[in-house]
Amino acid sequence: MWIHGSLTRFAVVLLFSSTPLLAQTLSREQWGAPMVSVSRANREWTIAGRKNKITITESNLAVHIQAGSANWNLAPSGSKDLLVQSDGVESYVRLADAREIEVVPYDTGFKTGVKMTLTQWGDQKPAGLVLYLTVCLEGRDEELVFDASAEEHSVIARQLDWPAALDARDVDFTLLSNGRGNLLPRDWPREYFPIRSIKDGKVSTNDHSVLQSHVIESWSMSWWGFQKGKSAMMVISETPDDAAYQFEHPAGGPTVIGPRWLASLGRFRYPRSARMCFFEDGNYVTLAKRYRRYAMDTGLFVSLKEKIARTPVLADLIGTPQTRVGILHNMKPESDRYDPTNHYNVTTFDERANQLKLLKANGVERTLVFVSGWPHLGYDRQHPDPLPPSDDGGGWAGMKRLADTCQALGYPFIFHDQYRDYYVDAPSYDPRFAIHEEDESLPAKAFAGSRFGDTKEGQIPFMSHWDGGKQTYLNARFQPGHLRKNYQLFFEHGIHPQGIYIDVIGYVPPDEDFNPEHPTTRTEAMRAQAELLTWSRHNLGFTATEAGSDWVIPYVDCVNQSGGVGKCISVPLYNLVYHDAVLISFGEARNGGRKNLLLGILCGGVPELPVTTRAGKDDKSLELIKPMAALHKRVALLEMTNHEFLDKDRRQERSTFADGTTVTVNWDEETVKISPEVKVE
User: Per DSSP, what are the bridge partners of residue 70?
Assistant: First the structure.
């Protein structure tokens, strides 16, 4: 039956398509289809399952969700739902203002709901842009799945905010996976923004960092959630590569957050999906465990046990402290951070070798040595062409002596390396290989140049914040070639590290490149950076990167501490999902000091041990580092099963691991209790 009058924009089909005769002899339950019905009455569509019921209002596309005894409401269609481009001009439109909207039942056999077809906003031609939106209940748990795709002709979809943000006025907490995880109360008294700098309770007006997935500060995992009373719900972004979220939290709240789909090289290109999961009785641990199951089902989760099978050296690094040693810091005057009184210091390869010998003599039987600052001009200089090694540090001969010393001591060593930052004084620098943004407009969108100053030369973004001064970003397609080039040179000089630490790629989002000679999507950039880690594992061994947004988990063995004690209420969402999939290191030298070691023990992490640590001199640090290493040896391969706060002020918290081990931290007293106790060597 069709209903399409001259005064309505809605075309409605109420009949499902025909099914084969044999299927008609079986009930839907018999062949496993969802027991979901679809109906329309009073200009509302209802998708009703056995547990959950969804209502969509035709006039404003508002979605009401009844999940058990809990009710969740998505905001109605708004003036900035969809950013479109027509004849080179961008404008926002409201989805519900489409002049043609067709709604029909939709049934794939495993999920059931409705499909909405929307076209023609304002003066657009009818076929300029067609949006296809589906809303379905799926599976025995009746999770709510939203899919969006676009047919682009004379009009291009540049950004889509759909499904709409949750109406959070009655939500108690919003769960954010930025950093290691944050619990944001609805009435949090200060302005909050996940990715931008916050000073004196206000979001920085100079920081234009763009919310997007695969950047630790936005989200370390592709989900967020909500707690309301005893109930909880979450949103999983199932197509995160070109995704972000709508976000706002003014002082005092409430929090506004919902999916945002970004263009890929300027167009919508492919279908986008978000999944909502509902829990009658649940909290942030429940939501983290649902995402853990999602990560396992989709291949994001690769356990440490599996990684040990493919890289056996990893087994010897369980419970092994990590020691970081730098050679040369040599900051260029054009760096934003240049300090004329402290811009150059060197500790030679031989001096570092002697420090490691002393560390061994002081009873440290095994440590993993990270060597940084080895490039020709020093730390963060001339990448991706950092070789030969620093002359002031001792050159090739000094580096070889350090490598030989590590081997003699039984200390595996790796290099801190970098392939995204592209310095203009690198020997191979050529602007053709730098990423090009879509146009010449400011602020630059490449992370995180906007935080440190917006500069562009044509379409190429630049910044001058780090030690090496002026830099842009190397297209990811060219990064693996430089990695292979550099390590072949190491091998030719008899230097064979047992792994690598590739800076930033686990922290920052993948870069798009609009250069028509080698256009590169974010997905293609991630594929190239995964190649960096895969080649390194096969040819070197141990792999590590910074912070570790979860797309790198299948490829990396170790990340360093992801987030400190949090911008609001810190909760270990990352660890509840990935503790037994990746080593996470925590060190006193990082921001937070001793509290980082307490946090590391709470999370079952691996300690960072300063090379100058001495028994009797650094006993306060060792009293945490030693039990932390022993605990890591016990629980590294085990799931973190629970986390809880033990007092109303959240000054005491406890983590639990799969073998029953508990770790309790008292932040006021700066004490930790491990039960059962670990044996400290």
Answer: 67
Q: What is the mean pLDDT of residues 496-506?
A: 97
- What does the alpha-carbon distance between residue 149 and residue 143 come to, in Å, rounded to a whole number? 20
Residue 87 token pair: 């004849």
CB 178 within 8 A of CB 194: yes
Q: Are 157 and 268 in contact (CB under 8 A)?
A: yes
Tell me the C-alpha distance between 609 and 623, whole Å: 12
Tokens of 216: 């630790």
CA angle 455, 457, 462 (to 5 degrees): 45
| Neighbouring C-beta atoms of residue 361, cutoff 10 Å | 10
Sorting pLDDT into bands at 50, 70 and 90, what band is 565? low
Minimum mean pLDDT among 124-128, 243-247, 425-429: which range? 124-128
Judge whether 666 and 654 are in contact, CB under 8 Å: no
DSSP 26: S
User: Can you list the positions of beta strands (E) in 489-557?
Assistant: 499-502, 542-545
- What average pLDDT score do residues 10-14 get? 60
User: DSSP alpha helices (H): ranges in 10-54?
Assistant: 21-24
Rounded distance between C-alpha atoms, residue 120 and residue 127, angstroms = 7
* Distance, CA of 639 to CA of 581 (rounded, Å): 9
Distance of alpha carbon 453 from alpha carbon 479, whole angstroms: 25
Q: Are 286 and 332 in contact (CB under 8 A)?
A: no
Alpha helix segments (H runs only) across 434-570: 449-452, 479-492, 522-539
pLDDT of 275 reads: 98
Per DSSP, 362 falls in state T
Question: Domain spans of the chain?
Answer: 1-18+29-157, 312-540
How far is 596 from 590, CA to CA, in rounded Å? 7
Mean pLDDT computed over 33-52: 96
More confident call, 561 vs 551: 551
Per-residue pLDDT band for 3 (boundaries 50, 70, 90) equals very low
> What CA–CA distance (Å, rounded) separates 150 from 272?
10
Tokens of 236: 């999983």
b/e for 391-427, b at 16 or more Cβ within 10 A?
ebbbbbebbbbbbebbeebebbbbbbbbbbbbbbebe
**pTM to 2 decimal places:** 0.95
562 pLDDT exceeds 70?
Answer: no
Three-state SS sequence of 225-263: EEEECCEEEEEEECCHHHEEEEEEECCCCCCEEEEEEEC
Cα–Cα nearest to 516, from 271, 266, 270: 266
Identify the H or E element spanning 324. strand 322-326
Of 36-50, 189-203, 250-264, 450-464, where does mean pLDDT reach its minimum?
189-203
Q: For residue 521, which phi and psi values (nearest 5 degrees)?
A: -80, 170
Q: Which amino acid is at 233?
A: M
Which carries the bigger pLDDT value, residue 7 or residue 403?
Answer: 403
| φ, ψ (nearest 5 deg) of residue 450 | -60, -25
402-405: long-range contacts, CB 8 A cutoff, minimum separation 24: 402/349, 402/350, 402/352, 402/353, 402/371, 403/494, 403/495, 403/496, 403/497, 405/353, 405/356, 405/357
Q: Can you tell me the distance from the alpha carbon of 583 to that of 560, in angstroms, rounded to the nearest whole number?
A: 8
Radius of gyration of the chain (CA): 27
Q: Which CATH superfamily is domain 312-540 in?
A: Glycosidases (3.20.20.80)
Length of the chain, please? 681
How many angstroms separate the CA atoms of 307 and 543, rounded?
10
Pairing of strands 100-107, 89-93: unpaired
CA distance 102 to 93: 18
Determine how many CB atoms are found less than 10 A away from the CB of residue 230.
12
Asked whether 180 and 575 are in contact (CB, 8 A), the reply is: yes
